[in-house]
Amino acid sequence: MKGGGFAAAALTDQTFGQKPSMNVTREPVALPRATQLLNHGPVTIITSAHNGRSNVMAASWAMPLDFNPPKVVVVVDSRTLTRQLIEASGVFGLQLPSRKFAAQTLAVGTNAGFAIDKFSAFELETFVAEKIDVPMLAGCITWMECKVIPDDSQRHDLIIGEVVAAYADSRVYSNNRWHFGDDRDLRTCHYVAGGTFFATGEAFDVSPAANALSASPASR
């Protein structure tokens, strides 16, 4: 489904209401580095709220746009409750779920917010955001608070947001770097279709070629 969550999929082997680990420490991410959280293209979860109503949806189409100030782009179908709430409030939460949170991610991406209160139905624990009036999901591993930047591109279901606060679970992200360990449940996810995800794999480093070290930015 374009910008409106995931196409319907069978919800199997799911356990809702999992409490986040008591060991979670949310550490601030420097704003000029905030969009680095999205560079590897993981599935995201968008939270929104306005006038006493809130919603949560999964979104695979989210990407970095700029560094300073940090900006992101998300695709949210104009027919969704999430889109209505974002347009009314001018803010949204953008967070990355881990593999452990995949069942909830699928659930909020395949059920419409108009029909149910997804926070209650799927027992999603939240916490208060720092700079926007939107619930943030405790079960995720990174969080970005965003303010909408008005743009004509919204007519194509694109929403541009400036990141005004960002923080991450220090078990997997600190000092401006991802460091996934042996616990595969703490890795970010990539959604394919039909309830199928990929977990983020192993990192590896590549040294720049010698002849590229002296190249000017303009020649890239």
SSE inventory with pairings:
Elements lengths: L25 E3 L15 E7 L2 E7 L2 E5 L4 E5 L5 H9 L1 E6 L5 H9 L7 H4 L4 E3 L6 E3 L4 E7 L9 E12 L3 E2 L2 E2 L10 E5 L2 E4 L21
Antiparallel strand pairs: 1-10, 2-3, 2-6, 4-5, 5-10, 6-9, 7-8, 9-10, 11-12, 13-14
Distance between the termini: 36 Å
What fraction of the residues are assigned to beta strands by DSSP? Answer: 25-35%
Largest sheet: 8 strands, antiparallel
Q: Uncertain runs with pLDDT below 50, 5 residues or more?
A: 8-18
Q: What shape does the CA trace take?
A: globular
Fraction in helix: 10-25%
- For CATH, the homologous superfamily is named as Electron Transport, Fmn-binding Protein, Chain A
CATH topology-level fold name: Pnp Oxidase, Chain A
Any idea how many domains?
Answer: 1
- Calculate Rg over CA atoms: 17 Å
How many strand elements? 14
* Distinct helical segment count: 3
- Determine the structural class based on helices, strands and strand pairing: mainly beta
Q: What letter string, H or E per element, gives the SSE order?
A: EEEEEHEHHEEEEEEEE
